[in-house]
TrEMBL record, chain A:
Family the UniProt entry places it in: Belongs to the steroid 5-alpha reductase family.
The UniProt record lists the keyword Repressor: no
Annotated transmembrane regions: 100-119, 198-217, 262-280
Protein name, per record: 3-oxo-5-alpha-steroid 4-dehydrogenase C-terminal domain-containing protein
Pfam families: Steroid_dh
InterPro entries tied to this protein: 3-oxo-5_a-steroid_4-DH_C, SRD5A/TECR, Ubiquitin-like_domsf
Entry membrane topology: Multi-pass membrane protein
Keyword Lipid biosynthesis: yes
Subcellular localization(s) per the UniProt record: Endoplasmic reticulum membrane
Domain 3-oxo-5-alpha-steroid 4-dehydrogenase C-terminal: 159-309
Keywords (A to Z) from UniProt: Lipid biosynthesis, Lipid metabolism, Membrane, NADP, Oxidoreductase, Transmembrane, Transmembrane helix
Organism from which the protein derives: Hevea brasiliensis
From TrEMBL, chain B:
One Pfam entry name: PTPLA
Keyword flag Transferase: no
Keywords: Endoplasmic reticulum, Fatty acid biosynthesis, Fatty acid metabolism, Lipid biosynthesis, Lipid metabolism, Lyase, Membrane, Transmembrane, Transmembrane helix
Catalyzed reactions per annotation: a very-long-chain (3R)-3-hydroxyacyl-CoA = a very-long-chain (2E)-enoyl-CoA + H2O
Protein name listed in UniProt: Very-long-chain (3R)-3-hydroxyacyl-CoA dehydratase
InterPro entries, alphabetized: Tyr_Pase-like_PTPLA (IPR007482)
Domain of life: Eukaryota
Membrane topology recorded in Swiss-Prot or TrEMBL: Multi-pass membrane protein
Signal peptide: none
Protein's organism: Hevea brasiliensis
Length: 310, 221
């Protein structure tokens, strides 16, 4: 069949179009486009079916696993696809690794090295026990995240735009340094022993719970990346859609209760807001996907992220 | 019912815009008169009251955007109002040593001319349902000159106020304290200066885009 590839402004991206097998898959089409354009490797391509002009609907995105025939609604000799360049891509693993590496490395710098003399604090620095525990907790957390990135997570998308590397690293590395600065400060004031123990204890429990949530989510998908979106079940997922975010937020709450810095609370609030946004989108998507029609199960009534509020 | 609300909205906004217009007209009048009669060192003292009132009233505009009384996105109004309030209260009001600087004159004149045009434009639009084309042209063209002069005055005043900020220790929070928090107003001011670097071209190009949209729309009508 003949495939015409146009940009969103209507210009033909591949002059003369492409000639493909009738049984070709979208992945084959992506390979062919890459061969002709040389610049746009498959993960950079977003291919959609053309929308009638003025239509307010969202365009249908071609799934790389499906065959092209599935998208031809009548005429199987000819199909037009609209191309969008998603920009340079990196794998999600690369993105997560770099954003988590920053906090893992930068925090210990404030603990181990005499950086505060450059901020005008000369003289000896007394290290409180809580500051040592905080170092261990923090580094364990980001080490856990990196391990999960490589061994636990099964991603729905293989790649993410390169620009996200800079944006996400700025977020993690800046907040990480901001918290590390106050936590390891020579004039740091610890909270009571009891408050510290409760905070760290609660945080650790939530980290374990969070890890278990990640395992449950992983088992929803098969190793080859198919499986898309499923209804999560078991453990806290039975009452809350994004139990993984819930446990993550509570884990930071525990850490911040134990260490008591405004910087820590600021990070907690921002992180909670970001995760709440994600959770709302995920909850909405799952409800839309699992509407109870055509044999699909109906998505059960659940909290989105933070019972009893949302 | 909807008609009543619409009428009330227009009435309120007409009143609001023209009231603040009067405030800024006062600022411009007093500033120019003081410059001619006494010199730039005395400009702040003469405009202080109407300036503080008119500029702070702009906080209402954030509310207007949030509740949907006006269409402006708060992403555009927030940085604008933020920088104005910072310079007005956080620099001029808080550090009297800077008030005699000549940049105060260029600042209040740039601001007041811009605001006189802006508030009369919106005041007319809400009252009559439209604004005359010459007023629209003014609103979307004077920024070519007044943005650069205004922004340079803001940046300049923040920069020249730095020594006074450092000496005074005002608004600073020092450690140790139970919340393990610190805030240094001097370094925060330097950070603000840094934000002006990407912020100014962003605001300028936003106005350019608004100009294109507004002037082409009026051509088609």
């Amino acid at each position: 069949m003949k495939v015409t590839v146009v940009s969103r402004s209507g210009r033909e991206l591949v002059k003369g179009g492409l000639e493909l097998n009738d049984s070709a898959s979208v992945a084959d089409l992506q390979e062919a486009i890459y061969k002709r354009t040389k610049k746009f490797y498959p993960s950079r391509q977003r291919l959609t079916l053309p929308l009638p002009p003025g239509s307010k609907d969202r365009p249908i995105v071609l799934n790389y696993k499906k065959s092209l025939k599935d998208y031809c609604d009548g005429n199987s000799d000819n199909i037009t696809v609209v191309f969008k360049d998603l920009g340079p891509q990196v794998s999600y693993r690369t993105l997560f690794f770099w954003e988590y590496l920053g906090p893992l490395i930068l925090y210990p710098v404030f603990y181990f090295f005499p950086v505060y003399q450059y901020f005008g604090y000369k003289g000896e620095r007394v290290i409180h026990p809580v500051q040592t525990y905080a170092l261990c907790y923090w580094c364990f957390h980001y080490f856990k995240r990196i391990m999960e990135t490589f061994f636990v997570h099964r991603f729905s998308h293989a790649t993410s735009p390169l620009s996200n590397v800079f944006r996400n690293c700025a977020y993690y590395w800046t907040f990480g340094s901001y918290i590390a600065y106050y936590l390891n400060h020579p004039l740091y004031t610890p909270v009571s022993d009891l408050q510290m123990k409760i905070g760290f204890g609660f945080g650790l429990i939530c980290q374990v719970a969070n890890f278990y949530c990640h395992i449950l989510l992983r088992n929803l998908r098969t190793p080859d990346g198919s499986g898309g979106y499923q209804i999560p079940r078991g453990f806290l997922f039975n009452i809350v859609t994004c139990a993984n975010y819930t446990t993550e937020i509570y884990q930071w709450l525990g850490f911040t209760i134990a260490t008591q810095t405004v910087a820590g609370y600021a990070f907690l609030v921002v992180a909670a807001m970001i995760m709440t946004n994600w959770a709302l989108a995920k909850h909405r998507r799952l409800k839309k996907l699992f509407d109870g029609k055509d044999g699909r199960p109906k998505y059960p009534r659940r909290w989105v992220i933070l019972p009893p509020f949302l | 019912m909807a008609g009543v609300f619409e009428l009330l909205r227009r009435l309120y906004l007409t009143l609001y815009n023209w009231t603040v217009f009067v405030g800024w007209a006062q600022v411009l009048f007093l500033a120019v008169r003081t410059l001619k009669e006494s010199g730039h060192e005395h400009v702040y003292n003469s405009v202080e009251k109407p300036l503080l009132l008119a500029q702070t009233a702009a906080v209402l505009e954030i509310l207007h955007g949030l509740v949907g009384l006006v269409r402006s996105p708060i992403t555009a109004t927030l940085p604008q109002i933020g920088s104005r309030l910072y310079v007005t209260w956080g620099i001029l009001y808080s550090f009297p040593e800077i008030r005699t600087h000549f940049l105060v004159s260029s600042l209040v004149i740039s601001w007041s001319i811009t605001e006189i045009i802006r508030y009369s434009f919106f005041g007319t639009k809400e009252a009559l349902g439209f604004a005359p084309s010459w007023l629209m042209w003014l609103r979307y063209s004077t920024f070519f000159l007044l943005y650069p002069t205004g922004i340079s005055s803001e940046v300049g005043l923040i920069y020249f106020a730095l020594p006074y900020i450092k000496k005074s220790d005002k608004y600073c929070v020092r450690m140790p304290n139970t919340w393990n928090f610190s805030f240094d107003y001097f370094y925060a001011a330097i950070l603000v200066l840094g934000v002006y670097v990407p912020g100014s071209p962003h605001m300028y190009s936003y106005m350019l885009g608004q100009r294109k949209k507004a002037l082409s729309k009026s051509k088609r009508e």
